[in-house]
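Regression test case RT-17, inverse folding.

Input:
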């Protein structure tokens, strides 16, 4: 898992650098992005007692992957080496700080994020555990979303010209379908995924 963590940290640094070459000096509110995503995550799980709501765990997991992006960005600002970070992250993922059920775990994690403006991996792991999400799920989902984020940037996301709805469906949905057709253990998995996205984007938005 440490190799996968190191790979994800490297990929996140590359993504942030693509958005802004000097991203570490910008003072971006990564913690704010995290607690806002927590609210979206809770909506997908359901919290309204006055209506029937069934948890949408696929969407919950996608929100957790987004939070992971922001959390790693905070960790990369710590000044610690990738080796130091992966050692600590690996230990925390193996020791989730459970706080009741899913909703309670999300609230505890969000409160910790707001009060410290940092990223508590062990509390994040507790939310993952409550959602039934494994570390392998996190890795595969992260790599997929990272490739999609690069694809978006390469096709006008920052300038506002990117088309997010492909033939009536969000790009995230097409991403999930493509991942299911590929072998994530292949050395060129990222390249195959990017190529697949490009083909679909071109065909469906011609």
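Golden output:
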């Amino acid at each position: 898992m440490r190799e996968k963590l190191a790979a994800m940290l490297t990929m996140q640094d590359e993504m942030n650098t693509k958005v802004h070459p000097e991203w570490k000096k910008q003072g971006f509110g990564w913690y704010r992005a995290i607690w806002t995503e927590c609210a979206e995550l809770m909506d997908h799980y359901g919290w309204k007692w006055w209506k029937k709501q069934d948890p949408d765990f696929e969407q919950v997991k996608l929100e957790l992957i987004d939070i992971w992006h922001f959390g790693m960005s905070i960790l990369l600002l710590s000044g610690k080496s990738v080796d130091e970070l992966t050692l600590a992250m690996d230990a925390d993922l193996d020791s989730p700080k459970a706080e009741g059920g899913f909703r309670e775990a999300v609230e505890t994690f969000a409160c910790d994020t707001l009060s410290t403006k940092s990223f508590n991996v062990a509390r994040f792991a507790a939310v993952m555990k409550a959602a039934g999400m494994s570390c392998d799920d996190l890795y595969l989902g992260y790599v997929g979303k990272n490739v999609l984020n690069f694809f978006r940037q390469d096709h006008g996301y920052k300038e506002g010209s990117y088309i997010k709805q492909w033939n009536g469906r969000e790009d995230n949905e097409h991403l999930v379908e493509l991942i299911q057709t590929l072998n994530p253990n292949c050395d060129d998995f990222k390249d195959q995924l990017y190529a697949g996205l490009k083909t679909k984007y071109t065909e469906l938005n011609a």
